[in-house]
Amino acid sequence: MQIIKAFLRxxxxxxxxxxxxxxxxxxxxxxxILRAEVAPNKAGELIMDIEGxxxxxxxxxxxxxxxxxxxxxxxxxxxxNEGSCVHCGACTSVCPSGALTLRxxxxxxxxxxxxxxxxxxxxxxxxxxxxxxxxxxxxxxxxG
Amino acid sequence: MSRKSFAEIxxxxxxxxxxxxxxxxxxxxxxxxxxxxxxxEVDVVTTGTxxxxxxxxxxxxxxxxxxxxxxxxxWLNDVPAYAGVAAVDAYxxxxxxxxxxxxxxxxxxxxxxxxxGKQVKLRATSYGTDCYPRTExxxxxSKETINEAYLFNPRNAYQNYGAAVNRSDRTxxxxxxTLLPNCGNVNYSTSGALxxxxxxxxLRTIGIGTRIFFGGTQGYIAWHGTQHNxxxxxxxxxxxxxNAASLALIGDLKQMSTQFIRAAVxxxxxxxxxxxxxxxxxILDEEMVRYAAVCxxxxxxxIYDYSVPSRSRPVLAKVSYETLQSGNVVLEGRKVPAxxxxxxxxxxxxxxxxxxxxVDGQFLLSEPxxxxxxxxxxxxxxxxxxx
Lengths: 144, 387
Known about the structure:
Chain A contains 3 helices and 8 strands; from the N terminus they run βαββαββββαβ.
């Protein structure tokens, strides 16, 4: 079994198709939706954790891509610019997943991307704006 | 009992014989050897803090244009600066916001860019006078092209600061960071045992003229800080449980580093500035080593409910920095995550950099030319009629 974090962008014509249901039903995937946004007349975006066997995941990606859905594998729901982080720790008390923590020995900020829920609470709590959300509705998707 | 003077310690520094340790290292030395022996062996203890300090800003002198202008209004990268002083002087406050309406860019960002050596757009207007005929100017400046540029921060390095929590049912955005509803998190902003004024609670060795680490270079204590409040209640170890003494600091912006001065954006509040400050504590006697060896277990601060929009916020609890730094605080029977807003990592870099400067003989201690007030309480602003 494999667990990936995925970003899916649906064109508007897919709004009435049960894509997530098909991913679950036809590809035996266990899906945990972390974040979902739909803008009328534009596009829908999802960030989800997907658990399944490697072949099923590969086939599901092929299916989604074939349906015209942008499918990207993410490391996390956020990107952390380590060059500008001052390791203050302000992000750590709002992070519900434990992905952002302060190491107690050297007081460095430690980021565990796999744990990230993509809640994005950290993005605006960072005083030096070192954290960017991966999901920008109808914008550029950064490499998470 | 061993006693040392500033002059004796400086003599050792010049001879590179001074024993210098950080405010964290002294804790173990005292635990191992006791205060009497530690006072004999150690000459200086260095401290450090790197947190958002809103009451900060820079004095700038731009030089005269041809023909000259008596600048009446000044903007730097569209951030207004105060120009009600002479012709080409201006004070750029760290929390001043860009006129674009964004809360994401302000004076602190301009200061950071100046320190980084970047070009900054200067715009100024005037009514024109016989001696200063020009009425407007738009140009670019950098720290290389202007005359004086020094930070003069009216209130920095608070001796302790209250921690913040939010008991309301909605998320609030404060200068103490994002506070989640129903006591969802606790934010605090002091480097605890490393914090400068925690290590000299009664300001015995710290005063006007004290040479310090300031923004990556050597700066000075100019005055007591605004709202300086040394009369706060104190514990047996002399330490206050909330913001008490504070300092006004001065130092050369041109020599500073963006590692130790960084613009900060507090969501929904506006702009602030991370300021790096380190103060050397001379170990004149056993009393000073006792103060400097204080550990986080014995430093307490109040936790305030920031959802109450009042100058007198209710206190929910009193906790030690040992507890806060563990990452969790128990509040109303529940474990609540606690996080600092000031960087302990950078505070350590500051304390160890200052230590190295002293060890290398590059930084001598200065005896205060005058003491800071040891009793004072700020007044409140009352709203009176007739104004």
